[in-house]
Amino acid sequence: MVASILGVGGITFITTGLIPVNGTTTGFAYLLYVLIVASTWGFPEAAAVSVAATLALNFFFLPPVRTLTIADPQNWVALFTFFATSLIASRLSTKARRRTIDAIERQQDLERLYTFGRAILLIQPDEDFAQVLCRKLADTFDLSAVVLFEQRTNLIHRAGRVEFEGMDSQLRDAAVQGTSFADAERNRVITAIRLGSQPIAGLALQGSRMPDSVLQSIANLVAIGLERAKAQELSNEIVATRRSERLRTTLLDAMAHEFKTPLTSIRAATSALLTATNDEIFKSKRMIQIADEEASRLQDLIDNALDTAQLDNDQIDVNLELADLTETIRDVVASMKSIAGERITIQSDSPQPPIPFDRRLVKLALKQILDNAIKYSPADSPIVVHYSRNEDMVFVEITNHGKGIPAEDQARVFERFFRSPSVENRVPGSGLGLSIAYRIAQAHGGALTVKSHPGETTFRLALPFERINSA
Amino acid sequence: MANENGGKLSQGRILVIDDEPQIRRIMRETLTGAGYEVEDARGGDEGLVKMRDYHPDLILLDMNMPEMGGLDVCKEIRRDSAVAIIMLTVRNSERDKVAALDAGADDFVTKPFSTPELLARVRASLRRVPMAQGASAKLQFDELTIDFPGRTVTRGSTTAHLTPKEVDVLRFLVQRANEAVSHRELLQGVWGPDYGDQVDYLRAVVKNLRKKLESNPESPHFIKTEPWVGYRFNTLPESS
Lengths: 471, 240
Hints:
Low-confidence stretches of chain B: 1-6
Mean pLDDT of chain A: 82
CATH topology of the largest domain in chain A: Heat Shock Protein 90
Shape of chain B: globular
CATH superfamily of the largest domain in chain A: Histidine kinase-like ATPase, C-terminal domain
Strand order of the largest sheet of chain B: 2-1-3-4-5
CATH class of the largest domain in chain A: Alpha Beta
Number of strands of chain B: 12
Structural class of chain A: alpha+beta
Oligomer: heterodimer
CATH class of the largest domain in chain B: Alpha Beta
CATH architecture of the largest domain in chain B: 3-Layer(aba) Sandwich
Low-confidence stretches of chain A: 467-471
Number of helices of chain B: 8
CATH architecture of the largest domain in chain A: 2-Layer Sandwich
Helix content of chain B: 25-40%
Order of helices and strands of chain B: EHEHEHEHEHEEEEHEHHEE
Radius of gyration of chain A: 44 Å
Strand content of chain B: 15-25%
Order of helices and strands of chain A: HHHHHEEHEEEHHEHHEEHEEHHEE
Shape of chain A: rod-shaped
Radius of gyration of chain B: 18 Å
Strand content of chain A: 15-25%
Largest sheet of chain B: 5 strands, parallel
CATH superfamily of the largest domain in chain B: Response regulator
Number of strands of chain A: 12
Distance between the termini of chain B: 58 Å
Mean pLDDT of chain B: 85
């Protein structure tokens, strides 16, 4: 302000002293200066300059010179016209300037809206959509706080440098009833996000005053973004359901195959017995024995399947008991004699003291690993169970001489339902066995690992002496 | 030949190929009990080796085996043998049935099966339709020569072996040349009285026969289809 007035003084000095010119020229010089001030600074400065220029013109140029009185009435008109022109010019100038600023701001707003809209489209499906949305909004529009309350999920998402305190109820109102709220003092605004006419969320912004049109555009973009998130969630659910259906079918297929095998023997035996003539008694005892053994095996299979299915769903509760692990291993191996024959041998370093473990669960885990070894190795190849220990843990290593697990599958072999593509269509299986064994190991505070190269695969079950985390 | 059956003559030699030891066990029990000689193999590779040494009359082949799958084994056997093959399947699906027949199996049985059913199918597969009296051993039609006792078919310079069922179906049709023979008649005549509805079996055999007999299996000259009725062996020249 002061500087602009000094400018008037400057011009006056030049025109009266340095380069003597008449009043008219000076007047135009003043006008020019007023325009410059108006377009550079603003109306107040330009108005002040107008007043100063008028006075200067009067004082220095209009007769009688060096007084504020004016002799000639024409000069009054001239002076008044000068003042009016000056004011109008500065007004017009500032208006033009204002409009330019507005246009630039609007362009910036549009750019920001475009950036924001694009950012919404680029949000990855695995990110927390609403959260990232708020963050992008705060970043793009340079807001100090953004809060989003989504009615569907009943969640509040926050972003921005500043804590947005209070106004939770207004935010909810906006989401439910569609009301808006503005707090000009703290530069806050709360608006409803609508899809069609239905409000689906409430959005609170702090830190930047933006025109209503921009706010509305933001609200629309957020609405679209939230709808996209909802569609993405639905799509994921469908994919998951379809996958789980497919897995269920695979599981049922595998179980059907396993169950049908002992059933075949039983059915064949019983139907043969029913058609046996009286003098075929000698073979009937053998048949009955086969039927009995296979029925028992079927029972085991069913129990195993039920156990596995149940464990797959629940938390594994471990009942620790001090027991002899070697004996448990021997029991498991013995129970598998009918399908493995004499293939399995047990080796151990030295007699082992009893350790705490859940016998039922560890039996199941060992059975799964042995099943795996039998299934995926040649029919006459040996399987070795090696039992050892160090100070804190016992190790049960089961080695088979099958084709091996491809390196890229080794990391995934303990995943629920995972079946290596190299065997998927050849050998029936549910893909659950190893994952159950893995979880049983973990539930004991231990671990199940695998090392495999073509020709040899070793699974290692490690159990700690003392459970690391007590219940 | 004295054997486990207490001096009875063996009804035939059967090779069981199945990866599950319990299945091999029950098969052996059931079949030896019915008077057959049984040998078994744990998989396709072992099965193919044993075939050469044992010369079975019939092979019972499991469809779901790891390593070499049942269908592959069947195709491999069919490459140079016309021995009777019955496939054991787990699922009773059309697809499995068609796949088995297409691979060259003569019949199939779904697990679990009843022993009488299995034995009936074994009998049907081992059944040989006796040659009618006075029927010629070799027949010639243009460039096609059929040798019934030798079970071969020669077209031009190519000779193909016929499976037992192929021989029987062909002979049945040839003995009623230029006459339409119904599906039912064919099935019961060749497979036995328990059969009559299994048109798929016939279709599979005819398809394979056409591959061996016809210069263009897609538009056959010799074995004509009688729609809705059955088949006819045609010896008349084609009218253009």
